[in-house]
């Protein structure tokens, strides 16, 4: 029975992915030693991503087997650049192990275990930028050096040098908005995206203003006079009459009056 290797990728939003692709088109200056040429499989084109998990499977899997319910878009923050020792670890960006990113990976791995699939996530989390065989010793290190010297990686990523919009001149990270299921059995340029799923938007925090003598929370409203109190809270608010962790019942049946400091 033939086993196929698959990967689950966390992929940036459309504009951020396009900006990263511009940077990934960079090629080092031809100052390599004489009688050395770039090997044929070096610098393949591929989509920017973070690999959440890789696994082998004898049959065609479906992405719903791996995607946990309610998975949300995930912020990714760049931390450093890494030069590796082999082709698939040539040059990558190490991402910060944020709670959101680690939680998404752990939930994916747990979901796969529930579906009786064994997976791994080596060198997590990193974003590969270039794959290359060294045609001479130190070629990967030279590539990293030229990325720094040309202002492309210092440590934000400047994608505008290679054609991305000016607002991508100092990328600190990206928002992971999709998960892709990819067949990675063959060479890099023969990888096949089999399925993709959008992640649910992560709701921003809302500022809630409670003004003196006002019986209700004013959500997203005009700030008006100086607020009596400012609280940061999740965007979700209970319905009228439901229990609230702020003060008893929420709504006109049981209004919340701030304490008078006098």
Automatic annotation (TrEMBL):
Q: Name one Pfam family in it.
A: CPDase
Which InterPro entries does this UniProt record tie to the protein? Answer: Cyclic-nucl_3Pdiesterase, Cyclic_Pdiesterase
Please give the superkingdom of this protein's source.
Eukaryota
The record's GO molecular-function terms, alphabetically, read: 2',3'-cyclic-nucleotide 3'-phosphodiesterase activity
GO biological processes: cyclic nucleotide metabolic process
- Transmembrane stretches in the record are none
Protein name (Swiss-Prot/TrEMBL): Cyclic phosphodiesterase-like protein-domain-containing protein
């Amino acid at each position: 029975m033939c086993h196929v290797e698959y990967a689950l990728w966390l992929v940036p939003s459309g504009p951020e992915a396009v900006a990263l692709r511009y940077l990934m088109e960079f090629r080092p200056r031809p100052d390599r030693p004489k009688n050395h040429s770039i090997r044929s499989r070096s610098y393949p084109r591929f989509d920017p991503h973070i690999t959440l998990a890789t696994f082998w499977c004898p049959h065609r899997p479906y992405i719903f087997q791996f995607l946990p319910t309610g998975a949300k878009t995930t912020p990714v923050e760049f931390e450093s650049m890494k030069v590796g020792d082999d082709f698939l670890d040539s040059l990558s960006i190490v991402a910060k192990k944020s709670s959101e990113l680690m939680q998404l990976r752990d939930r994916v791995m747990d979901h796969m275990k529930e579906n009786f699939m064994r997976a791994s996530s080596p060198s997590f989390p990193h974003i590969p930028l270039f794959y290359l065989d060294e045609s001479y010793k130190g070629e990967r290190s030279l590539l990293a050096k030229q990325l720094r010297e040309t202002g492309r990686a210092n440590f934000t990523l400047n994608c505008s040098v290679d054609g991305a919009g000016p607002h991508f001149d100092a990328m600190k990270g990206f928002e992971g908005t999709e998960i892709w299921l990819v067949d990675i059995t063959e060479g890099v340029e023969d990888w096949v995206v089999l399925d993709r799923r959008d992640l649910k938007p992560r709701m921003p925090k809302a500022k809630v203003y409670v003004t003196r003598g006002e019986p209700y929370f004013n959500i997203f409203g005009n700030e008006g006079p100086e607020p009596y109190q400012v609280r940061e809270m999740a965007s979700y608010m209970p319905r009228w009459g439901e229990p609230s962790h702020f003060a008893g019942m929420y709504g006109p049946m049981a209004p919340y009056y701030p304490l008078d400091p006098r």
